[in-house]
Amino acid sequence: MPRDTQPAEINTGWTRAEAEAIYNQPFVDLLFQAQTVHRAHFDPNKIQMSRLLSVKTGGCPEDCSYCSQSARNGSALSASKLMEVERVIAEARKAKAAGATRYCMGAAWRSPKERDMPAIEAMVRGVRKLGMETCMTLGMLDDSQVLRLKDAGLDYYNHNIDTSEAFYPKIITTRSFADRIDTLSRVREAGISVCSGGIVGMGETAGDRIDMLVALATLPEHPESVPINMLIPIADTPLANAAPVDPLDFVRVIALGRILMPKSHMRLSAGRTGMSDEMQALCFFAGANSLFMGDTLLTAANPGEDRDRKLFDRLGLQPQALQDSTDIGA
Ligand code: SAM
Ligand code: DTB
Ligand code: SF4
User: Fold this and answer.
1) Confidence label for 213 from pLDDT (cuts 50, 70 and 90)
2) How many whole angstroms separate alpha carbon 54 and alpha carbon 108?
3) To the nearest 5 percent, what fractions of the chain are helix, strand and coil?
4) Do the Cβ atoms of 132 and 321 come closer than 8 Å?
5) CA-to-CA dists, residue 2 to 11, 24, 148, 220, 282, angstroms
6) Catalytic one of 51, 148, 180, 195
7) CA 230 to CA 279: how far, in whole Å?
8) What is the reported pTM?
9) Percent of the chain at pLDDT above 70?
10) What single-letter DSSP state applies at residue 296?
11) CB-based pocket (< 6 A), ligand 3
């Protein structure tokens, strides 16, 4: 049932059957519905721009099958130390100059250690002072860590559910789907905006993709930001040879997310180097309105600014200014 704290048109009671019926419509009908919902809430030609930085890379104790940074995956990445605060702020300044409005900092941790918290808080304060939104993704958080991040002024916390609850144990065994939901509810309760999505292309079924979106759309409040990643296959990980995703199925996932969570930013996230301009255009038509800019994500490649500038020119898209970041229907 919709919570009374949310506008009436926001539904947090979606069922699997409802979502399946939407997803399985003829492609053109699905896209028309998604674009209609999109236009009721957003300027369809504006795209929110975030920039990522890995502030602590590699050596992660978790066993996520897709990840270059898991110490268990034999991928060649060695563990780095936590980056110096001043360097992080210098990188954020460059990202702002290049047009990013949100700076997302990621660490390859199961959860942050006490000794790292002061530096993490200083990063949040420093990046905020530049006039950018801040996002962190640091793994699982306890109550006190969430409150400290909130006090430092953190705007968003990214914590992906990655896939359906049923498929989750096939991808990660060192933590559970329920652990993810716990951290998400702590973040929400503390008043930090939630960024949560998943990955398409890990061998999951269409049903798993639908269940993942229904899980996000039936949280007590929809995540403000929903990143949909297309798997970037990484050598020497268990998913190195995963079958590529059908691009039209990927577009369907974006469209369903847009319809189930009409006011959330849907981010066309990892995997854009493997997408044609035409596939990205269909994703924008289906309601994607956020992306990562710049030539690297955390460890993997991303289209650089030149390619994205050309794409935006071809499509008549514009970066969303920070003051436009609330939806037009609000
Ligand atoms: N360690 C933290 C965590 O797991 O929450 C933060 C960083 S983790 C790399 C953030 C997200 O990136 C993952 O949850 C996953 O959805 C996405 N991701 C990681 N590797 C990926 C890959 N090879 N392809 C696509 N998405 C990936
Ligand atoms: C998200 O959903 N995708 C980003 C961000 N949230 C942290 C990370 C993508 C990582 C892609 C693989 C890499 O760069 O190692
Ligand atoms: Fe660690 Fe995050 Fe990679 Fe999992 S996705 S191995 S938790 S860095």
Assistant:
1) very high
2) 8
3) 40, 15, 45
4) no
5) 5, 24, 30, 8, 30
6) 195
7) 12
8) 0.95
9) 95
10) B
11) 60, 62, 64, 67, 69-70, 108, 139
Annotation marks residue 60 as catalytic: yes
Calculate ∠ Cα 23-201-137, nearest 5°: 100
Q: What is the pLDDT, as a whole number, of residue 60? A: 95
Q: Kindly state the tokens that stand for 182.
A: 């716990």
Q: In sequence order, what are the residues at sequence separation of 6 or more whose Cβ sits closer than 8 angstroms to the Cβ of residue 220?
A: 3, 12, 185, 188
- Between the CA of 297 and the centroid of ligand 2 the distance, in Å, is 6
Radius of gyration of the chain (CA): 18
Report CA(213)–ligand 1 centroid distance (Å): 17
**Using CA atoms, how far apart are residues 92 and 102, in angstroms rounded to an integer?**
9
Strands (E), the chain: 46-56, 102-107, 133-137, 156-158, 193-195, 198-200, 225-230, 265-268, 288-292, 318-319
